[in-house]
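1st attempt posting a full record on here, be nice pls
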Amino acid sequence: MDATVAERAARGKAARAEVPRGVHGEWEPSADRPDPVGILVEQGETRIPELLPIRYGRMLASPFAFYRGAAAIMAADLAGSPRTGLVTQLCGDAHLSNFGSFAAPDRRLIFGVNDLDETLPGPFEWDVKRLAASFAVAGRDRGFSTKARLGVGVAIVRAYREAMRDFAGMRNMEIWYARVDVEELFKQYGSKVTAGQRRRAEETVERARTKDSLKAFGKLTSRVDGKRRIVSDPPLIVPLDELVGPVEAKQAHEALAGLIRNYRRTLAGDRRRLLERFHYVDAARKVVGVGSVGTRAWIVLMLGLDDDDPLFLQAKEAQASVLEPYLGKSPYGNHGQRVVEGQRLMQAASDILLGWIRTPGIDDVQRDFYVRQLWDGKGSPLVHTFDPDDMRLYARLCGWTLAKAHARSGDAVAVASYLGTSDVFDQGVAAFAEAYADQNERDYEALQQAVASGRVEAETGL
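the predicted structure (as tokens):
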């Protein structure tokens, strides 16, 4: 028999006795804490060797850039902290740049978590702590005072806590359909922001609206011998023809076309029918992100009626989540499916062409991938332009959004009961975020030293 609301609330309160809310403010590295650079090097063992210097170079750009690539390091740190036992589907890498806009199936722009490579079920507070710490690190990057950063940290967690309380009182279907519509945000906050804030937000949204396959087609392709081909820009974009010899190229293209046919099977019937209207044209390896650099990511050009009817897909390698050593293996045998199922759980709406495959690479090694549209209204705020007021507003938005994502998969009643109505948890996580930002700076310095000593090689400017 399912637990009653009262029993679920009691479970949340009981968790306070096991893990008091104030405990979440503590951070002290353990005596046997793993070497942070060693964790990065170990990750690199399954990645493309010649791309690893780009990863390290991008992480060296700033402590915030380092934090973006250090999800595995923080997962190891969180594993040693007390756990509430209140499980939700985790993003696994919930930093502020992994939130943003994307197009829903009805083509309206919505806001949500938009990078789920590390998703896995786990204690809700891990995502909250990673999100709060990312704001602390970004605030330092922007030169904010300690007081301003702590204010932002409290704002994030308060928004999460209050949203979770609201979700705890909703019907299941109401939670499922809840979403942040970008146009509605403008209506809601239009009178509460400055002219400059509104202008910057509108510019960000306009950039996102134009990010689609047509724009990618114009930017990433050219006509070669009368045919459309992806433009080479090594080492960031390398067409398939340049990765293999001329003899192998024809076979490799045929294999990729077959790959797309296999991926179609993971889509709903109507979406399979849509994809069947496009044919394979070309593919290239593309370097993406910061933490993902070195994993295999492909962009695939498809055409429909003619050159005015393009579709760009991205096939991104899905390795084991950085959370798995501490939370257990995924229930899915394919890590591409792990990412897709996690994304569908945490997002109010997902890419209509989101699917997964397992396929041998050009080195004949079997690997898992998830597939989606390359650009589909995807956009992120320009955090490097934020002032403290901008950051606080964005923090509240991210806090609400994370609570919504967790409420879809977890027990909102139990989590809300644990959090309560006071600001004990808010203050605790904000303090943790500042302490962990100190740790992040020490780890960033460790990477700098590793590069200086020649332990790892970094290539900057890419």
